[in-house]
Specification:
The complex is a heterodimer of chains A (283) and B (339). By secondary structure, chain A is an all-alpha fold. Chain A contains 15 helices and no strands. Chain A has two domains: 12-43; 48-273, MetI-like fold (Orthogonal Bundle), CATH 1.10.3720. Chain A is 76% helix and 0% strand. The longest helix of chain A has 34 residues, at 58-91. Chain B has two domains: 3-234, Rossmann fold, CATH 3.40.50.300; 241-338, OB fold (Dihydrolipoamide Acetyltransferase, E2P) (Beta Barrel), CATH 2.40.50.140. With 339 residues, chain B is of the alpha+beta class.
């Protein structure tokens, strides 16, 4: 009797639930959890000491440093750009708005290799500005600026994409209320608009950061793979792997995985701090 | 503060929201803008507030042209249907916003702001709730906060956009009284938008009825209810039976129904009769009673004329027994408009 009373019209039979949930779990285990375990297992195959040593190698340290620098430049840049773009798109009407929305999505639809090649074409030796750059001794391709540019390109949709629906859903009446009480544009933005999207912004920044540190394709094209100079962590992993230094490769890879885990934990914390952040109804 | 709207026009794309609207609002009056959705009433309110700017025409505050002045410069208090409270600020911070924003010598001292916030919370009967966040309040309480926030800047005019639209019926009724009380206490010129005719008639000193971007009639609640100038107003304000028929020889005819129609152009016309204007009358026309239903002090009668036309009649509770079988009725009063 008691069991019957809990049944709902939309409940599926037990076998169907087991099948669906089981399939999803098996799939996740195969493509996500198993590789994750493999990465850590390979890294620790010769013991923790060897793995730690591989990370403390000068080239590895240089790669870690470069990755951190790249993220430290591109993430704040994209956070600012994403906030501006989302604010313009969600709160204002202007000609060319659909075009701007499409452009923001471009990095998601373009292969990262193409993204890298674009910069080689523009700033490379044979590129549009190649001669000028050589004459003035400015290095962009095969140097840190190129890596940062490619990373910015690939990661710029994350913050904007996260904020646009959130801001659109919140509408403009709070801003109108602020303006009608005498608040200026900037004051309204900092006191009313920004606090309303802070959790969404944080979430977008986390995703952006994870991708900025993990980007391989675009960075690979522009980096030149100079050890200790233009190698980021993902590129360093590839080099070590190709040289059969499996422990070294997997140790650096494990570090990248740890970063992903930290990102996930932070993301969950952000969502917990703001219950119903997604699909929240504005009141 | 008197407000004059002079042939204001506003288009959204090709859709005309306001079509040459003229309106004079008296100092200290409580005016309702009443109309169906899409009639332009909210656009008109937002134009007065400075949240929209007209394509043509003028808005004057006390004779001063403010057509293109910003909302801030007009010193208006605006209350939104969905409250638009700042979610991350306490109630007190919300109310103080318009004062905190000020700079230099215009900005009251902290103590002065705190005192004003307390006074306003008392005015809307929310004392002690200043430290709460909007999410911890009920809908009615939130709208009271929105009202006191709008009043905090001592606005020259208070504008409310469907202020009770998102609230349930009981809260809506008590907030209506509240708004009237606050208006009488502060004396501030107040304009509110509503699509609820009952709300407009109960609350306002005068009602402006809008339809398709134009003002159909403006007058006291009694005027618009008892002497509607257009067919639209008659149909929109108050309950009314409507009949399509012909006018000839000073009389309106629709099937077996006959109504006096002096002064109306001959030809096809529409007649409106309020349910309470139908009375039992042996000289009238015959209807069959389908159902007489007593509700409180009134009897609502559903009748059918000989040609099958449904008619709604409102009578006193005591008369319920007389509406049975087939009876003869006549209209005490009818509003007939040439088509």
């Amino acid at each position: 009797m008691a069991a019957v009373s809990h049944r709902k019209a939309t409940d599926d039979p037990l076998w169907a639930k087991v099948l669906v949930v089981g399939t999803v779990m098996a799939f996740l285990a195969l493509v996500l959890i198993l590789p994750l375990i493999a990465v850590f297992a390979e890294a620790l195959r010769k013991g923790l000491g060897v793995a730690l040593e591989a990370i403390q190698n000068t080239d590895a340290l240089a790669a870690i440093k470069l990755t951190l620098i790249t993220a430290a430049i591109s993430v704040p840049f994209n956070a600012a750009f994403g906030l501006c773009a989302a604010w313009a798109i969600a709160k204002h009407e202007f000609p060319g708005k659909p075009l701007l929305i499409t452009l923001i999505d471009l990095p998601f639809s373009v292969s990262p290799v193409v993204a890298g090649l674009i910069y080689v074409l523009i700033f490379g030796l044979q590129g549009w500005f190649g001669e000028y750059l050589v004459d003035n001794d400015i290095k962009i391709i095969f140097a840190v600026p190129g890596i940062v540019l490619a990373t910015v390109f690939v990661t710029f949709p994350f913050v904007a994409r996260e904020l646009i629906p959130l801001m659109q859903e919140q509408g403009t009446s709070e801003e109108e209320a602020a303006v009608s009480m005498g608040a200026g544009g900037l004051y309204t933005f900092w006191r009313v608009t920004a606090p309303n999207v802070r959790w969404g912004l944080m979430y977008g920044v986390l995703l952006c950061n994870a991708r900025a540190m993990g980007e391989f394709g675009a960075v690979s094209v522009v980096s030149g793979h100079i050890r200790g100079l233009t190698n980021t962590m993902p590129l360093h992993v590839e080099i070590l792997y190709n040289e059969y230094d499996f422990v070294g490769a997997f140790a650096v890879a494990a570090l990248l995985c740890l970063l992903a885990v930290v990102t996930l934990v932070l993301k969950t914390a952000v969502e917990a701090a703001q219950p119903g952040m997604r699909g929240r109804s504005g009141h | 503060m008197t407000i004059s709207i002079r042939s204001v026009e506003k288009k959204f794309g090709r859709y005309p929201a306001l079509n040459k609207v003229d309106l004079e609002i008296k100092d200290g009056e409580l005016l309702a803008l009443l109309g169906p959705s899409g009639s332009g009433k909210t656009t008109l309110l937002r134009t007065i507030a400075g949240l929209e700017f007209p394509d043509a025409g003028q808005v004057l505050f006390d004779g001063q042209d403010v057509t293109f002045a910003s909302a801030a410069d007009r010193r208006v208090g605006f209350v939104f249907q969905q409250y638009a409270l700042f979610k991350h600020m306490t109630v007190a911070k919300n109310i103080a916003f318009g004062l905190d924003v000020r700079k230099g010598k215009d900005k009251p001292s902290k103590a002065e702001i705190a005192r004003r916030v307390d006074d306003l919370l008392k005015l809307v009967e929310l004392d002690g709730l200043g430290k709460r966040y909007p999410s911890q309040l009920s809908g009615g309480q939130r709208q009271r906060v929105a009202l006191s926030r709008a009043l905090a800047v001592q606005p020259s005019v208070l504008l409310l956009d469907e202020p009770f639209g998102a609230l349930d019926a009981t809260v809506r009724k008590s907030l209506r009284k509240e708004l009237r009380r606050v208006h009488d206490a502060t004396g501030v010129t107040t304009i509110f938008v509503t699509h609820d005719q009952e709300e407009a008639l109960e609350l306002a000193d005068r009602v402006a009825i809008l339809n398709k971007g134009q003002i159909e009639q403006i007058g006291t609640p009694d005027q618009v209810h008892d002497t509607p100038e257009t067919a639209f107003v008659c149909g929109f304000v108050g309950e009314a039976n409507s009949f399509e028929g012909q006018v000839g020889g000073g009389q309106f005819t629709a099937g077996s129904l006959r109504l006096p129609a002096g002064g109306v152009r001959e030809g096809s016309a529409t007649a409106y009769v309020r349910p309470h204007d139908f009375v039992l009358d042996d000289g009238g026309f015959e209807v069959r009673i389908e159902r007489a239903h007593v509700q409180g002090a009134l009897t609502t009668v559903n009748a059918v004329a000989q040609d099958g036309r449904p008619i709604e009649i409102s009578a006193s509770r005591a008369e319920a027994a007389r509406f049975q079988g087939t009876v003869k009725i006549a209209a005490r009063k009818a509003h007939v408009y040439a088509a």
